[in-house]
Amino acid sequence: MNQIPIQVFLVPVIGLVAVAYMLWSRKRTGQAHDQQFSGYRAGELAQRLGLQLIAGDPNFNLFIRYANVDVRRGPSDGKPVHIEIRMQGAPNGVPLELVYLYRVERESDLTTVTWRTWFDCRMSAQAARPFPPFELISRSAPLGPIAQTQPLPPQSTGNASADATYLVTTAEPGMAQVLGQAAAGFATFANSGVHLVGDGQKVSFVMKQDKAPLLANALYYAEDMSEQLSELARRLGG
Fold first, then answer.
1. Cβ atoms < 10 Å from Cβ of 86
2. In Å, how far are 34, 74, 149 from 103, measured between CA atoms?
3. Cis bond leading into 153, ω under 30°?
4. pLDDT tens, residue by residue, 213-228
5. 195-198 and 202-207 as β-strands: parallel, antiparallel, unpaired?
6. Is residue 178 helix, strand or coil?
């Protein structure tokens, strides 16, 4: 009588053990990194910045999202992963807000699996009065170019150094000059890239999870970001 090769039983078992070890290792690594960068847990970061956490888990680490049990588990049909953080205040005398959104949905049937992902992270300072919309974008950034998000024409700032470093777009030449004067304050973020978006009421530093401006590099200087955005909002608001 033919015997079933023992490999038939061992291969699936080995595969399950490998998957279990990979998940355990990722959890352990996530926990270690969470401890290492505990200052970027939402509650601790809000306290450092002089902001109040008004939405979200205070233990969620904006640097190490995979330390969160829901993120590690991932979405299933009808049960998305949804992380939303919002903190607000006025530590520098200007209304300031930091928002973080990470959402992943999954839909599957017998033949296909569809994934949908949303991500947004930005620190914003509110100006006292309306101003012409603008964007300021690093011409050269780690992880590739930064995409413009508003259909605005390029302008010279009148500052040769700023023009060499940043692309400034706005319909108002006077706004470009203001940005040329303020640009030097954002030199700290050269290792992440800079993407400032002025929507006419607030100015935001936009960050990305896996491309420039890289969240981990930019938010490492969260206090500087808060100060520079607040100062720029004051200039724009008169």
1. 17
2. 20, 10, 21
3. no
4. 999 999 999 999 999 9
5. antiparallel
6. helix
**Chain-centre distance for alpha carbon 100:** 7
pLDDT band at 170 (very low <50, low <70, confident <90, very high): very high
pLDDT over threshold 90, residue 51:
yes
Do residues 140 and 121 touch, judged by C-beta distance below 8 A?
A: no
Beta carbons of 183 and 165 less than 8 angstroms apart: yes
Q: Which token pair is 85?
A: 């953080």
Residue closest to 68 by CA, chosen among 34, 96, 36, 97: 34
Give the residue carrying structure tokens 């992963």.
81
Q: Which of 5-14, 78-87, 201-210 has the lowest mean pLDDT?
A: 5-14
Question: Interior CA angle at 146 toward 140 and 147, to 5°?
Answer: 140
As a whole number of Å, the end-to-end CA separation of the chain is 92
Angle (CA) 179-233-176 rounded to 5° is 20
* C-alpha span between 41 and 53 (Å, rounded): 11
Name 96's bridge partners.
89, 125
Whole-number pLDDT of residue 12: 52
**Cα 106 versus chain centre, distance:** 22
Q: Report the distance separating Cα 103 and Cα 25, nearest Å.
A: 24
Where do we find the tokens 């530590």?
91
* β-pairing verdict for 134-138 and 96-108: unpaired
Dihedrals φ, ψ of 96, to 5°? -130, 145
Residues 6+ apart with CB under 8 A from 187: none
**pLDDT tens profile 153-166:** 999 999 999 999 99
